[in-house]
Write a structure and sequence with these properties.
Number of strands: 9
Number of domains: 3
Structural class: alpha+beta
Strand content: 5-15%
Strand order of the largest sheet: 3-4-5-1-6
Length: about 425
């Protein structure tokens, strides 16, 4: 049974829905079945004169129902059920003398809305992943289970989806399964978001940035371009069908899961699964997104710029005006990076030097003074920011609220700067 507050909302929506029925019972243009067809000019979607007053009421009912059961219902499903399971039945599918009226109609409308807001369903959604290989036991990561496809499954998919299962999907060896809540449309959207979130984590922490990156065409079928060859002609007579680096079949365990030790995967998983993030954690989350984006096909300078976005998002933020005058943004980022990721004095000095170098190149790209950056520079910059992301996840796990904002992070860095050498050694070991 709905709570008192929900029941009041249901009663209000039932009154609006009843008004809507009376509007549509006026007859005329809405008397034939084409009125329900989205392509028809005599449609609830494109109401002619005389039905405009019903459109606003209809939207109030749809949005009201969605707000009462947002985790289970999609707008598509509410539209479908409202039109064909209620409005059609109460307007054109039965004779006028059989129409419900007054309190009986309100009661029927209320019961219809209750059924929708009490609706619950779960679906196993399988999503094909291009160019990823796994022939061992299924692997679960976050809320997604990766498993090998069978020949029978692939034949069934090809038969059922012959219009979509084109040559580019021959590289499918894995299905990503998500147990998703909601109606079918809601479950599909939920599952796609979960799978893409996991692939984004894999990209951010395991995919190559420069060299070989174009060969790692892993992604949801339909979202990823599954080939790197481009058909070209030379002088209008010679045709080439293989231009590019080819595709690498990425193994889930060998190339992704095993390249990071389990305790780091645990750090990443625990972080991603958190339902609420403080300000610093939100920055890390956004930085992971930019790291992932920088592994996708793009120009060298664009990939490099995305890595710099990841760096700025991860540990950037306003220092005091006095600090900026004295040090500048590059020095500030370099110092923060050195203290967060550096293991000892030599390592910190190396990180400081690298960040200054690469962030300086970023400025050259933005201002047009830098030429095309090399793949080696992209790789090296990406790797250092990736290492920094893992280090700050570790710091967040250990220090918690001590660095939950940029200001607190800056205070922590200053503390490290002025800590005696023997105390620093204790802190970093």
């Amino acid at each position: 049974m709905p709570s008192k507050d929900k029941q009041a909302e249901v009663n209000s929506l039932a009154q609006i829905l009843t008004k809507l029925v009376y509007i549509f019972r006026r007859g005329g243009e809405a008397s034939d079945y084409n009125w329900w067809n989205k392509s028809s000019s005599r449609s609830i979607f494109y109401p002619i004169y005389g039905y405009e007053d019903g459109r606003e009421l209809y939207e109030q009912v749809v949005q009201g129902i969605l707000s009462l059961n947002p985790d289970m219902l999609s707008e598509y499903e509410v539209n479908r059920r409202l039109m064909f399971d209620f409005l059609e039945d109460q307007t054109i599918s039965v004779k006028q003398e059989q129409h419900l009226k007054d309190q009986k109609l309100i009661s029927e409308a209320s019961n219809f809305i209750k059924r929708l807001i009490e609706f619950k369903a779960y679906h196993d959604i399988d999503i094909p992943i291009a160019n990823l290989w796994h022939n061992e036991q299924p692997v679960e990561f976050l809320d997604v289970t990766f498993r090998e496809t069978t020949n029978d499954e692939l034949k069934t998919w090809e038969k059922k989806l012959s219009a979509f299962w084109h040559e580019g999907t021959k590289g499918v060896h894995i299905l990503a399964r998500v147990k998703a809540p909601g109606d079918e449309q809601k479950a599909i959207d939920y599952a796609r978001n979960k799978v893409n979130a996991v692939l984004e984590v894999f990209r951010a922490f395991c995919f190559p940035f420069g060299k070989k990156s174009n060969a790692w065409r892993v992604g949801v079928v339909g979202d990823i371009i599954s080939y790197t060859s481009t058909p070209m002609s030379i002088d209008g007579s010679k045709f080439l069908s293989r231009i590019g680096n080819g595709i690498m079949l990425v193994e889930l365990n060998k190339h992704i899961l095993s390249v990071i030790e389990q305790k780091k995967w645990d750090l990443i998983s625990n972080f991603i699964l958190k339902t609420q993030h403080n300000k610093m954690e939100k920055k890390v989350h956004d930085s992971i997104h930019w790291l992932a984006e920088s592994t996708k096909p793009d120009t060298n300078n664009s990939k490099f710029a995305k890595i710099s976005f990841a760096l700025e998002t991860l540990i950037g933020g306003e220092a005091s005006e006095e600090d900026l005058k004295v040090r500048g943004i590059t020095a500030m980022l370099a110092e923060r990076a050195a203290f967060i990721a550096g293991k000892d004095l030599e390592d910190r000095q190396s990180i400081d030097k690298e960040i200054r170098k690469f962030y300086g190149m970023r400025s050259g790209i933005v201002h047009g003074s830098e030429g095309e950056v090399s793949l080696d520079d992209i790789d090296n910059f990406g790797q250092i920011v990736r290492r920094l992301a893992l280090s700050i996840l570790d710091k967040i796990d250990k220090l918690g609220d001590e660095i939950n904002t940029v200001d607190k992070l800056e205070s922590w860095v200053k503390l490290q700067r002025y800590t005696l050498l023997e105390d620093t050694t204790k802190e970093v070991t």
